[in-house]
Amino acid sequence: MLRDLSALLASMEPELQPGVYVFASVTHGSAPASADVIATFREREGLTVVMEEHAAQAAGLTPLFRAAWITLTVHSDLHAVGLTAAFAQALGEAGISCNVMAAAYHDHLFVPADDAPRAMDALLSLQKRAGMLAASSKP
Questions:
Q1: Rounded to an integer, what distance in angstroms lies between the CA atom of residue 9 and that of residue 118?
Q2: Domain 5-136: what homologous superfamily?
């Protein structure tokens, strides 16, 4: 588990998950089958669900956001400081919006489905720059 920002960035290894995912909102108590749901978040207005697009369509849900799912495969510490800011800045500079979910082992980024290739390029470029900085600072 890593906490050091330089080490996190140099080893984040973004991985594009196959498929298209959607964010949708359902009323409390009406969530689709849990096997189809990738993530949930309970808000006052309803339950946000993230799920594969085809499963959401089958459940009759209206997508609020179509996304590609990118996992940063580095095992990041939930106490690490700066990782989210760094990749958000890299994606922002590329004009790509991002919805982030931090889980126990990895960070998961949801970017507009059509922007997946550009998002991967921006993240890999950030990782490469961090790796070069780490290598140049070693004695």
A1: 18
A2: VC0802-like (3.30.2130.10)
pLDDT tens, position by position, 60-107: 999 999 999 999 999 888 888 888 999 999 999 999 999 999 999 999
Rounded CA gap, 72 and 14, in Å?
Answer: 4
Contact 78, 104 (CB under 8 A): yes
Residue 134 and residue 63: Cα distance in Å, rounded?
Answer: 41
> What is the value of pTM for the model shown?
0.89
All residues at 6 or more sequence positions from 48 whose CB lies less than 8 Å from its CB, including other chains: 23, 24, 25, 40, 41, 42
Residue 127's pLDDT band (cuts 50, 70, 90): very high
